[in-house]
């Protein structure tokens, strides 16, 4: 089957228990744009918030499901344990360290990770995040920061960087990455944390910060118990719907149970779990977020795909109002 390589990260979806606090942190502190305020299409009683660059270009989306009664995450293995975000250069990393200090954001010191200046930090619910410098990046291009962001464009977040998978049996995940998804194993490095874990680097497409996945073995930890501050799934970029339908066949031929083709309106999707239980999604680059809102007013109102529009009154009645006017 003639398949184009996956193009890198499409989006990462995580869990929050507080949509208002989440909106304030990711727009006012991190300077991302809320490009879509909608609902979880599998449970329309909860918000699904999409933060990204100026228009939600593929590879720039960090999204959250609001689950108001979500408990605290018990961090562990078989999880997406770290989401990184790209910034333009090394000077930007220093800018962000100063910004975090001024805003009392929990953060570590600047370190080198895989040859890139990096800064780990946590949001108000303990979501594990890291900024990585694109100064020496050669590979998947980043997005374009919104010009109305409170963060200067020269230091603005450009999109998603490497996503870290922590698993108990890494060979199982590596086999899916390489034999099914056609990733290339690029290199390995020792993590800067106390556990000094070996990190294997896999890349796809043009590679670089937007096309890498990190794989870490931790068989000394219990399985993660998700809650607020945990990651629900990671999605990888597929160029077109035609390509996505080919991937359905690939997963079926590989014997991997999957969702089959799923219509999400803003993109088309395919879901499956790799053998350690982490949820992967393949998602198309389009159509994008401007089919139901103009560029100037993205994220300002509750947006519903057409197939939910006749339920708007009932859906809105279940949601706590969230003011998001730009």
Overview of this structure, please?
With 326 residues, the chain is α+β, with helices and mostly antiparallel strands. It has one domain: 2,3-Dihydroxybiphenyl 1,2-Dioxygenase, domain 1. It contains five helices and 16 strands. It has helices at 19-29, 90-103, 170-180, 241-253, 312-318, and strands at 9-16, 33-40, 43-52, 61-66, 79-87, 107-113, 116-122, 128-133, 159-167, 184-190, 198-203, 212-217, 231-238, 262-263, 267-273, 279-287. The strands form two sheets. Strands 2-3-4-1-13-16-15-14 form an eight-stranded mixed sheet. Strands 6-7-8-5-9-12-11-10 form an eight-stranded mixed sheet, covered by helices on one side. The chain is globular. The model has no long low-confidence stretch (mean pLDDT 96). InterPro entries: Extradiol_RC_dioxygenase, Glyas_Bleomycin-R_OHBP_Dase, Glyas_Fos-R_dOase_dom, VOC_core. It comes from Paenibacillus eucommiae. Residues 8-134, 159-285 form the VOC domain.
Q: In terms of topology, how is this protein built?
A:
Blueprint: E1 9-16, H1 19-29, E2 33-40, E3 43-52, E4 61-66, E5 79-87, H2 90-103, E6 107-113, E7 116-122, E8 128-133, E9 159-167, H3 170-180, E10 184-190, E11 198-203, E12 212-217, E13 231-238, H4 241-253, E14 262-263, E15 267-273, E16 279-287, H5 312-318
Parallel strand pairs: 1-4, 5-8, 9-12, 13-16
Antiparallel strand pairs: 1-13, 2-3, 3-4, 5-9, 6-7, 7-8, 10-11, 11-12, 14-15, 15-16
Domain VOC: 8-134, 159-285
Protein name: Glyoxalase family protein
Organism: Paenibacillus eucommiae
